[in-house]
């Protein structure tokens, strides 16, 4: 009796799964209109209504400073599971802050780096 109940439940569950996914799928259901609507209406998105002063200011700042943005690639050496040395490469971004070429970036971009 202990074995019959789980087996019976599994057969009922498998039969219900088969019925709802395979056998019953050939019949039309009430939700057919969701997947296959009779009429599709396409509308365009609203146009650009103009930008406010703050948005214009942000765009101006971005355009002025786009040339100072740099890509940074760093190489570090870490230990793997067996304490073997494994080279690791990372990437990040930064920007040039003065005429001497000093770059400002986040610490995690260059942390433990052997080569930048």
Q: How would you concisely characterize the structure shown here?
A:
With 116 residues, the chain is α+β, with helices and mostly antiparallel strands. It has helices at 4-23, 32-35, 53-65, 107-110, and strands at 69-79, 85-96, 103-105.
Could you explain the architecture of this structure?
With 116 residues, this protein is α+β, with helices and mostly antiparallel strands. It is built from four helices and three strands. It has helices spanning 4-23, 32-35, 53-65, 107-110; strands at residues 69-79, 85-96, 103-105. A three-stranded antiparallel sheet has the order 1-2-3. The longest helix has 20 residues, at 4-23. The mean pLDDT is 82.
Can you lay out the helices and strands and say which pair or pack?
Elements: H1 4-23, H2 32-35, H3 53-65, E1 69-79, E2 85-96, E3 103-105, H4 107-110
Antiparallel strand pairs: 1-2, 2-3
Key terms for this structure?
116 residues; 3-stranded antiparallel β-sheet; flat
* Stretches with pLDDT under 50, minimum 5 residues: none
Give the overall silhouette: flat
Strand content: 15-25%
**Helix/strand structural class:** alpha+beta
Please provide the count of β strands: 3
| Order of SSEs | HHHEEEH
Radius of gyration, Cα only, in angstroms? 31 Å
Order of adjacent strands in the largest pleated sheet: 1-2-3
Sheet of most strands: 3 strands, antiparallel
